[in-house]
Design brief:
By secondary structure, the protein is mostly helical. It has one domain. 76% of the residues lie in helices and 0% in strands. Helix 1 runs antiparallel to helix 8, helix 8 crosses helix 9 and helix 8 crosses helix 11.
Amino acid sequence: MVLRPAEAHLLCAAIVMLDLLARACRIRWYLTGLGHPIPLSRAFLINSWGDAAAGLSPMRFGGEAARLGGMLYAGVPATAAFVALAVEVLVAYPLVIGFGGWLIWRYAPDWWVQAGPDFARHLREAWPLAAVVLAVTVLVGAVAWRWKAVAVREPGRSLHRLKPAWRSMPRWPVVLGVPTSLINVVGRTLLLPVLALSLAEHPPVGVLLVGSFVLLYSQLMLPTPAGAGVVDLALLGGAAGHLGNGAGLLVAWRFYSVGAGALLGVVLALHLVGLRPLLRAVRRVAGRSPPG
C-alpha cells in the first residue's frame, strides 16, 4: 500500500487532532467524576500545555507538572488534580505495556530480519555515542527524579490524603478512559508508518510499527528533550527499517509526534493565559504539596 504525500500528511494531522480531542475528553471526564468539571476547551489547553512542557524537557518529566499547573490555574483543587493524573497513569500505562508487548510478540521476528542487522551495525559503529548517552541518561535521570520529588513534595508519602477523593470517583470515567487512552497509544504509533507509506519503497508495516513504538516511548528514558539527537540517529540508522534518505520523513514525523503539540501548547497558553500568569502557575506548582 502506498499513500500520496498529501494523503499521508492529512491522515497524520487527523490522528493528531483526534488524539488531542480524546485526551481532553479523558481528563475532563476524570475531573467531572471527582466533582470538579471543567470546559472541554480548558481541558484541551491543559493537555496542550503539558505537551509543550513534555516536548521541551528531558525524559518528558515537565509534562505532568505543567498539566498540574494548568488544572490549578483552572480552579481545580490540588487533591482532585493529583487523583486525576494518577488515574490517567493507572489506566494508560497498562495499555502502553500491553500494546507494546503485542507488537513485539507479533512483529519482532520480522523486525529482526528486516531491520535488525543494519541497526545492530549502526549501534556498533556508534558505540561511543551510546556510552555517552547511557552515562548522561543515568545522571539526568537522577536529577530529574529529584526535581520531581521536590516539585510535588513527594506526594507518595501522603497518598492516604488522596484516598477519599479516589474512592469517591465513579467508575464510568475510568471505563471511558480506556478507549481514549488506546486512541493516544495507537494513534501516535501509527504516525511513522503512515508517513512511511508515502515512500515508493518502504519496510513492512509491522517493522514500522515496532520501530515507531520503540522510538516514541524511548523518549521517556532519554536525557535530551524528546530524545533529540538519539532518536533521530536511531531512525536514520534503521530502527524502523530502511527509509531511504529519511531526512524529510524524520522532520515530518518529529513535527506530528512532538512539534505540533508543543507549538500548539505554547501558542494557546500565551494567548489564553498570558506569560505572567503562566510563570505564577509554575511557581505555584513548584511549592505545592498534596493538601490534607
